Amino acid sequence: MCMKKSCFAAVCLTAGCLLAFVFAGNSYGAVFKHPGILNSIEELDYIKEKISAGQQPWKEAYDAMRDGTYGSLSYKYQAYDYVICGSYNNPNIGCNNMVYDGMAAYALSLIWYFSGDQRYADKAIEIINAWSYTYIENQDSNSRLVVSWSAPWYVNAAEILRYTGAGWSVADMNQFNSMLDKFLPYVLDDSMPGNNWIQSAIEAHFAISVYKDDLDGFNHAVDRWKTRVETYLYQTTDGEVPVTIPGKTSAETVKIWYSGSDGTAFIDGLGMETCRDFGHLKLGFHSMIYAAQTAWQQGVDLFALEKKRITDFMELHAGWTIGSESVPSDICVNQGVLCSGGSSALMPCGNSVWEVAYRHFNNRLGSSLPYTLQMLNDGRPGNMARWNYKPETLISANLPFFFDPNCLYSYGSWVNTAFAPQSGVFTVAFSGKPSEQTVNSVMGLSDGEASAWGDLAAIVRFNPEGKIDARNGAEYSADTVITYQAGKKYAFRLVVNVAAKTYSAYVTPEGSGETAIGIDYAFRTEQAGVILLNNFAAYTTAGSNTVCDLIITEHTPTVTRTRTPAHTSTGTRTRTPTFTRTATPVEPTLTFTRTATPVEPTPSFTPTRTATPVEPTLTFTRTATPVEPTLTFTRTRTPTPTPTRTATQTATGTITPSDDTFTVTPAITQTFTATPTFTATPTFTGTPTPTVTASYTRTRTATPSFTATATFTPYIIFTATATATATSAPVIESKIFRITKAENYPQPFFPLRNARMYIDFSVSQGCKSVKFSVYTSGYRRILTKEIAQGTAAGSRRLELDSGELQGLASGAYFWVLEAESLQGERISTGPRMLIILR
After folding, report:
1. What's the Rg (C-alpha) of the chain?
2. Could you read off the pLDDT of 200-217 as tens digits, one per residue?
3. CA–CA separation, 532 and 61 (whole Å)
4. What is the pTM of this model?
5. Out of 13, 205, 232, 763, which could bridge 420 as a Cys pair, Cβ 3.0 to 4.6 Å?
6. What is the DSSP letter of 810?
7. 757 with 743: CB under 8 angstroms?
8. Does residue 192 contact residue 228 with C-beta atoms inside 8 Å?
């Protein structure tokens, strides 16, 4: 029997077959698994075990995240209702906060699960709730991109919190779900640029679909991925030029690939943004891989679908990055430095840690990626970074695959599976796939579960020197030198003779012929007296090993009979066969149809008593317990502020604004429902007094088909109507923090004529701080003033004398108020126009 948690299947054997190993991934569009974005619960448990044991590279990566900015319990977040993100994040009103706060929520969620420290879960929930209850919409040209970067961070955190008992309430989960509904239109917009933007949007689309259990959305995301990977990474099989971007012509597509260069040779692995710079190219590639990883968690293997296209890209760019390959002169002609801020030609960016991609293509699909591996080793640990770089070393490095429940995953503890006892000659066949070039992994047979090397009788091994050998008595040996490679599958065959205490071992590397490891090797010395074998075991002390395809076949002896002297006979022999038949009676299957007139049952009593049933008189006492209502808020902002302001200046210096006032009046429509709970205690009078059970949700109708004498329990059925009155004020106080009636006068302001300018506004709650900032029309902050704090809600006035505004020349500006409530919520007004005339 299988006793280890990492042994996923143990099957009782009959001679001939041990286990049938079939890939168990879900079909396209199957039921969703949770958590299921970048990691499954099995993977998280594996990583947690490695961190607890202090093993690398997981421990180093975990410590870096916990001790960094985003994993800190003192992380300062700020949620915005309106996030305004222009080109190159100019303006940047909440754009960085939206992404960084999502990164923090994810980091804190991981730390919570790996450490068990509830404080990290509480902090992550606090951040997600702040945004869920505050956010309304994104505005300006970079809205779609910023939402696409942000959504996967929040969803990865939410999946962990939701499915690991972190204490996140259902109401808060539902509110987060509503925020994702607001995100969806941005990530579904296929009109956005076909470069890294669309790849980020598809990653977000996958994440949101899984969290919402949206099968149609998931299938749509799969189709988008298939289409856009072909347009982002080139293969010569695509034709002379790349696949045309949807909505573009072929000529427009080629121009985008040139990215300002004088031309480029299209070679296998070239990316759409290679000739732009490696920084933007990595943004697109990372999102592409994270999307494929999410699909993999749900049973859809997009990695295998585009194996060559993606691995060509990886090795091409990794080779250039680490300097192992020079860039041909016909690639990105006259483009020069391709990485912003770099100092060397073409590929000067720092190493990228492609752990997720390497794990699939090398460890699972067997692609040799030496340049990528060197880049991984040079860049570990790869931690999270803006805008979409996940902590890949922590969540993916050397991680075994847990998809096949019939495989054994050996990564630091003994795994066992039992089979029918064998005491003669039999064959064992299985495969092993090492995760690294220097694993130390044994696979062998024992009598009973193995928990030490000495428990194994016949053993083959991936040894730490990168070779395959087998145990021969007191030592490991090999008749032939056989090297192995990380991520490659090796089929083993052991022919075992238990009576002779010997075995022969053979191996077939993937794509090669069978080679003998050792012939007639002796059982391990400690097992020289074993009389039967009934268990397969594996153990790995460095790296991991995936063992599958396990089959045991008994050897059936061939018996030849000879007779001396030979028997000869003549004549005719007649035989009359005798038959004996044994029949097992079969109970017939009966179908009854009963028609009866309902009869009121006659109660029976012990001792015997004759009574006339009395309809009970029911008295109900209802107690209603008020329930805090669930509130749904809809904010309407009229008019919508527009970041762009237009003013014209005449020769005399007079400013004529295109619109001289900007008033934003948030209107809040509150809708709530209250569901009261109450108890009903029925009181009965009558003779006899029956036992009564009250039911509020069940109606029972009985149509008896026969006359019966019975003792019965009547069902009391009634309809209760209750009303409840709930006040929304406490909830609004805790969730809604507003600035209203924000205006300045005089407008326009003449510093040489007017002594003071006033800013009047109201806040719905007490404030820790309120900050007044003035920006140029180019969204550059030029003036900031702190306003005295107040602990009560109400009206405020800020006064600025003309001297404080002396640095402002005639022209159009705008100002913003930013406030922090006593509960730590941060909000800001939309931009207000300020006209200065001198």
Report:
1. 37
2. 999 999 999 999 999 999
3. 46
4. 0.53
5. 13
6. S
7. no
8. no
